[in-house]
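Hi V.,

You were right to ask for the full record rather than a summary. Here it is.
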Amino acid sequence: MMRGMRRYFAPATKLEVVRRYVRGDRAAVLAEEYSIRPTLVHQWVRLFQRLGEAGLRDPGRPRRADLAQALLRSDVIGQSDNLSAAQRRIALLERKIAQQGLEIDFFKHALRHFETPLPPADRPGATAPTPSSGRKRNRKAD
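Predicted structure:
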């Protein structure tokens, strides 16, 4: 197998590997068949258990609907260990709030650049004057 190059697997292929693993196929057998590492099989299984089929979709920024669904999944709320489930949910919500705070700060900073008025120009199409350096010129007396 080539190292250094990332291979692409369609979400349907990942789902097929996960389903076969759940049915009892060994990770080593699946890894050999698909020319992947056994750890990748386990990684896909963990993603599927945590996020469902959305965890196996193509890499990239997750859709808001997927994030909302992950937050409200009934299996997280209905677990037997309610305290640890609640703590995981709180941690997930805190990360979401922190991310939104960073985004708000970024956009506030970017907005400042657009709120600053442009200096007026003397005539249409002219550029605005630059501030003087403070040096006085030698002027001839009139």
